Amino acid sequence: AHQTYGGSWKFLTFIALVIQAVFFGICVLTDLSSLLTKGNDSQEQERQLKKLISLRDWMMAVLAFPVGVFVVTMFWSIYIYDRELVYPKLLDNFIPAWLNHGMHTTVLPFVLIEMRTTHHQYPSRSCGLAAVCTFAVGYILWVCWIHHVTGVWVYPLLEHLGPGVKVIFFAALTIIINVFYLVGEVLNNYIWDTQK
Fold first, then answer.
1. Where are the transmembrane segments (predicted)?
2. In whole angstroms, what is the distance from residue 54 CA to residue 92 CA?
3. Which one, 5, 10, 187, 192, has the greatest CB density within 10 A?
């Protein structure tokens, strides 16, 4: 039972794919809603659409972009360094290369296309960074909890780090995901030229 504890939810890749699926689902819903309410004077529908747009923009800023870019860059950086730490060669027998790219590569072009085609209103920087930190710390605590319960680290890489190094490693990852948040904000402002 320890092997299955946390299921797929213990992997950031899986969580990131769920985030992307929910986010792009909301994008489709937003587009459909705005098409259906065009030329309609209903204040209530207008309000609901604004809420949906706010949710879409918040998800893009805080989750879809930083978590997506984080998963792609971290996975491939570690994979290039030593694939056994994140994606042992043994997995090639069960998971075709296209599926690996589906999980660890395609997120990036899709999220960049979304950023280029749709203007997103970013939250205030302090709120955005606080939300990203909350997500990062929440995930780190979840990984530590799984280790506490099962005695096994979700990522083999963590087996090789001492306690002090783990703390520095987790802090560094939290800083990196915050940097990706800022990159997203800067890129969004650059594309849409929305500097205040």
1. 12-37, 58-81, 93-115, 127-148, 168-192
2. 40
3. 10
Neighbours of 136 (CB within 10 A): 23
**Cβ-based neighbour number of residue 1 at 10 Å:** 6
Coil, strand or helix: which one is 3? coil
Tell me, yes or no, whether 2 lies in a domain.
no
In a domain, 5, yes or no: no
Assigned domain for 117 exists: yes
The tens digit of pLDDT for each residue in 7-57 reads 999 999 999 999 999 999 999 999 999 998 887 778 888 898 999 999 999
Q: 185 lies in a domain? A: yes
Give the tokens for residue 60.
């893009």
Domain range enclosing 44? 12-194
Q: Concatenated DSSP letters for 89-116?
A: GGGGGTS-HHHHHHHHTTHHHHHHHHHH
> Is 103 in contact with 16 (CB distance < 8 Å)?
no
Decide: 16 and 67 in contact? Cβ < 8 Å.
yes
Q: What is the pLDDT of residue 1?
A: 57
Token readout for 41 is 């004077």
